[in-house]
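User: Show me a protein chain along with its predicted structure.
Assistant: Here is one chain, sequence first, then C-alpha cells.
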Amino acid sequence: METVATGRLDVQVAKGSGQLALYTEADLSTPHPAISRAIVIFHGLHRNASGYLRDVEEARSKAGASDKNTLLIAPQFLNEDDAHKHKLPVEVLRWHRAEWEAGEPATKPAAISSYDAIDAILTHLSDRTLFPNLRKIVLAGHSGGGQIVQRYAVTGHQIEAVEKAGITLSYVVANPSSYVYFDDHRPLPLIANACANFNEWKYGFRGMPAYLKSLSSTELEIAYVGRRVTYLLGADDDDPNGPDIDKNCAAEAQGPTRLRRGANYFKYLQSRHTAGLEHRVLLVPGVAHNARKMFTSTCGIDALFETGACKAARIE
C-alpha cells in the first residue's frame, strides 16, 4: 500500500474515538441536495482504495450515471505497517494486519471495530441536513472488501436506522475468500471435521468480536436473508491457488475456490430459506480475480446501478 487517503471521517464509540482514512469526491461536511445515490466501495487485502475508487468511477461512466447525483466513497482500512511507514497521526485508525475484514477492533487510537467505522459512514450519509434527497446506498467490495461487506450485511448496527430514514441499502459481495455460516454445516464436512477452528468467527459464530454480541446467529440470519445482497462472482475465479486466497482449513471447508465457495454459500442459504431470500448471484464470464473487470462488466454495473442488463445465474 503506497498511498494514504487524505480524507478523514470521525468515528466515535463508547470505547473512544478515531479518524477513518477515506477518499471521497465531495466535502462531506456540507449539504449535497443533488445526491440521490451513494456507493461505498471497499478495497481488498492490499488496501489500494484509490484504485477501487477509479474502478467504480469507470463503472459509473459506463452506466451513464453522473457524479452530480452519484457520490463515491472509498474507505481505507490501514494497518500498523502503514501507520509506521507513513508516520500517521495517532488519531488515524489502524488495524492489525487484515483483521478489519472481520470487524475486529483497531489497535489504535481506540478499540473501534471496522464495522463501527461503516456505521459512522452510514450515519453521516443518513443525515438529512447533509443529504436530503439520498435514496440509495450501495456497499460494495471485492475480495477482502467482499468479506467485510458480507459480514457487515449480517451484523451491521446501523442498517435499520438507514432504512428508517427512507434510504434503500444494498450490498455487492464480489469474489470473497470466505463467508460467515450460521450453523455447523459446511459444503466439505470432512475438512470441517478435521479443522478445529472451522466455526470460529469469521467463518462461524464462535468467539465473536464485541461488536456482535447483542444478537444470536439465528436472529442475525433472519434479518440477513431479507437484505438486498448480490453475490458477484467471476466465472474464472476458480483457481484453488489463486492470488491471496484464504488457505485456512476453515475456508477450505467452504469449497476449493472462490467461485465454488460463493456458489456453495448461496446454495446453503437456499436450502435453509425456500422463501424470503432476497439475494441473487450474478456471474461475470471470462473474469478471474480482478476488481476492475468485475465492477466494470455488464453484471458488475447491474449490481451497482440496477440496470437490469444481467440475468441472475442459476446455481446448480
